[in-house]
Amino acid sequence: MHTKLQELTDKIYNEGVQKANKEAEAILDKAKKEAEDIIAKAKADAEKTIKEAEKKAEELKHNMQAEMKLASTQAITALKQQVSGLITLDVVEPSMKEVFSDKKYVEKIILDVVKGWTKNGNFDLSVILPEKDKKEFEKFFKNSLATELNKGVEVKFDSEIEGGFKVGPKDGSYIISFTEEDFNNFFKAYLRPKTVELLFEKK
What we know:
It is a single chain. A 4-stranded mixed beta sheet has the order 2-1-3-4, with helices on one face. Helix 1 (2-101) crosses helix 5 (180-200). 75% of the residues lie in helices and 7% in strands. The protein has 5 helices and 4 strands, in the order H-H-E-H-H-E-E-E-H. The mean pLDDT is 76. It folds into 2 domains: 1-99; 100-200, ATP synthase, E subunit, C-terminal (hypothetical protein PF0899 fold, 2-Layer Sandwich), CATH 3.30.2320.
């Protein structure tokens, strides 16, 4: 009786141990698989993050290079304009100043303009001259354009005009400008690109 009881006890024990071992193995296998899945997911996430970071870094590098190239181009262009502007200024302004300081030459142009304007009997004309040369030009008009003055041509003086003159209808509806500043600006605008081309042409 004791022997059979012992055998039964051993059998139950062994079956329990086997069952426990199987359950333990199943738990371990499951845990191992879950750990492998977690590691694989973490590795995939890490690779994705690295690729995204590399892509962003490449985009940033590209953008910075493009901005640096643009800034460099703009700086070079600005420098070229400055250099050409200085050279043009050095050439144009003294030349224009010399032209407009020749009062006889300016007076001849004024005479031609006034005569041309009034030749058809239109004396609706206003001539605007530099304030600083008022006495000289008043004398010139009295001596050379007295008839035109008597028929209505008007002479005005403006302190803002350095050299040259302006003409237009008396109502001021439009003005044709022959001032030193206008000619300076005209020749600067014309010569600057030519100067850039001559100074910085590609070899």
